[in-house]
Specification:
Distance between the termini: 97 Å
Largest sheet: 4 strands, antiparallel
Number of helices: 1
Radius of gyration: 28 Å
Strand content: 25-35%
Helix content: 25-40%
Length: about 120
């Protein structure tokens, strides 16, 4: 039971540190962008993003931001508490697809039409 408790405490401690680091990282990225007239829209942890191999302690995020001109951009961002913020693969965000028009029922387009009523006068 002691082993289970020890492992649980260590995992909980690691998760707490990870969440705290994430919060600090987002603040650091947000400040970096704000100094350049940009606004952070979203940041998602990308543990295997470009540059992860060989770098110990750096955390990589895939970010989406609005630059100073208002254009939406996406980039990979590497950061660490004492190393600053570094961007790679910075490019314009893909244009969202136009929403498709919802299908609307139009009775005049029916293929089958009921036969005309006969007015049999017998």
């Amino acid at each position: 039971m002691d082993t289970f408790l020890t492992i649980s405490v260590l995992v909980g401690f690691w998760l707490g540190l990870r969440l705290l680091a994430r919060s600090f990282d987002r603040d650091r990225i947000r400040t970096y962008l704000k100094q350049r007239g940009s606004t952070l829209i979203a940041a998602t942890w990308a543990p295997f993003g470009t540059g992860w191999l060989g770098e110990r302690g750096d955390r990589i995020y895939r970010i989406r931001y609005a630059d100073a001109s208002g254009a939406i951009r996406e980039a990979l961002c590497k950061t660490r508490s004492l190393s600053g913020v570094y961007f790679s693969e910075d490019q314009p965000a893909p244009k969202p697809e136009a929403p498709s028009t919802p299908w609307v029922y139009d009775p005049s387009m029916d293929i089958e039409q009921s036969p005309p009523e006969s007015h049999d006068q017998r």
